[in-house]
């Protein structure tokens, strides 16, 4: 039995079976590469599910973690934390937001957004405004509040009763939102691009139209940018691609470049409803996580970094579209930046296995959609290597 098998057995004996794990244990990473316990190298096109945007163990992030670990790990939010204040300053400086609330994950950030939206109208004396419109195929997290907000029935199964006050409408359908809006609507919550839902992109005007509808109805607009922020789409925030600013935005994943941290950012007008006692997170914005995030943020905002990411994304999607033209089994290629998908006309699980055998990690969602979310530092040579494996796998699956 090799080291991978030893760890797999240990996991199966002691860890909850909430993931369908592959039979390898990743023990080391550097840049775009990871190694399993048996020493096999893989090129990573999953990035810890859009977390490791800077690759694995980025020197600036590692240095910041080491330095902070020797100074201060936790003191609680009863006191001011310098790295937290500096990180909030950077987030507000580079976005629409005026204030930031820190937590530990994307689902916590969305919980905070849900609470803030409802509390905002409570404070305004509009206690009947408690309903939030979300989208079918959306994904906002795994807590009771965030699965209630998510428009996927599979996430709801076995957890009834869900949190009331959510209405689901079709994504990228302005008429559906317009029809659902009412005097009870406190907010519309939407991912600018649906990641877990299949890498579904909106029309160019969709988010702008949502903004207009919300303003006309007196409702808030919330963008869930947990998966799409920090360069993933070629911009620091995905909303910049569509020319529409929200009232509230949720962040996590790549914010800490591998260290757990979440954030909910909002305008002063809205955030004023969060006062002492309304919301909190014990570990939210702790010195270690904020120091790591600060180091990562400096890389994301370095001159030319985002532009290069966009160029790499253009190259990658062009290569995928060559496969689309060559193989009728490919239904569609779509995406933006380095958030890309190839939808097949049949299950894609064997392609994931083929890629892993050849030393490439890719992700499959909804059984037939290959999602590509590599580190933003991925090279054209590494993309070409993956394309070769995908071509062979598609050839094997292609009907004669």
Structure, explained:
With about 400 residues, the protein is of the alpha/beta class. It has a domain at about 60-300: Aspartate Aminotransferase, domain 2. It contains 14 helices and 15 strands. The chain has helices at about 5-15, 45-50, 60-70, 80-95, 105-125, 145-150, 155, 175-180, 205-215, 270, 285-300, 305-325, 350-355, 380-395, and strands at about 25-30, 35, 40-45, 100-105, 130-135, 165-170, 185-190, 220-225, 250, 260-265, 330-335, 340-345, 360, 365, 370. Strands 4-10-9-8-7-5-6 form a seven-stranded mixed beta sheet, sandwiched between helices. The protein has a four-stranded mixed beta sheet with strand order 1-2-3-13. Strand 1 (about 25-30) and strand 2 (about 35) form a beta hairpin. The longest helix is centred in the C-terminal third of the chain and has 22 residues, at about 305-325. The chain starts with a helix and ends with a helix. The relative contact order is 0.15. The model has no long low-confidence stretch (mean pLDDT about 95).
């Amino acid at each position: 039995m090799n080291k991978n098998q030893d760890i797999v057995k240990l996991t199966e004996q002691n860890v909850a079976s909430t993931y369908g794990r592959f039979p390898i244990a990743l023990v080391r990473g550097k840049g775009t590469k990871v190694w399993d316990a048996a020493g096999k190298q893989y090129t990573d096109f999953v990035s810890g599910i859009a977390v490791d945007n800077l690759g694995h163990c980025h020197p600036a992030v590692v240095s910041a973690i080491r330095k902070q670990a020797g100074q201060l790990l936790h003191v609680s939010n009863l006191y001011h934390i310098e790295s937290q204040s500096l990180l909030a300053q950077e987030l507000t400086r580079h976005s629409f937001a005026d204030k930031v609330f820190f937590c530990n994950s994307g689902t916590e950030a969305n919980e905070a957004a849900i609470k803030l939206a409802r509390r905002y109208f409570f404070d305004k004396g509009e206690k009947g405004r408690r309903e939030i419109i979300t989208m079918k195929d959306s994904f906002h997290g795994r807590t009771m509040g965030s699965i209630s907000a998510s428009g996927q029935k599979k996430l709801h199964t076995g957890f009834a009763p869900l949190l009331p006050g959510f209405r689901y409408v079709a994504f990228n359908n302005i008429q559906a939102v317009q029809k659902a809006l009412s005097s009870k609507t406190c907010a519309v919550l939407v991912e600018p691009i649906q990641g877990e839902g299949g890498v579904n992109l909106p029309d160019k005007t969709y988010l702008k139209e949502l903004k207009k509808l919300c303003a006309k109805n007196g409702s808030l607009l919330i963008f869930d940018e947990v998966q799409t922020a920090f360069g993933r789409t070629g911009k620091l925030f995905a909303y910049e691609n569509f020319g529409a600013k929200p009232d509230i935005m949720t962040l996590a994943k790549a914010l800490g470049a591998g260290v757990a941290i979440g954030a909910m950012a909002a305008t002063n007008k809205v955030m004023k409803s969060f006062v002492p006692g309304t919301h909190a997170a014990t570990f939210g914005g702790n010195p270690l996580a904020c120091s790591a995030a600060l180091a990562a943020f400096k890389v994301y905002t370095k001159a030319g970094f985002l532009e290069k990411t966009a160029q790499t994304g253009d190259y990658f999607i062009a290569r995928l579209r060559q496969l689309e033209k060559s193989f009728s089994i490919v239904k569609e290629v779509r995406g933006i930046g380095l958030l890309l998908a190839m939808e097949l006309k049949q299950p894609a699980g064997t392609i994931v296995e083929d890629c892993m055998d050849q030393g490439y990690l890719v992700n499959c969602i909804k059984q037939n959609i290959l999602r590509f979310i590599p580190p933003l530092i991925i090279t054209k040579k590494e993309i070409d290597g993956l394309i070769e494996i995908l071509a062979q796998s598609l050839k094997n699956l292609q009907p004669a």
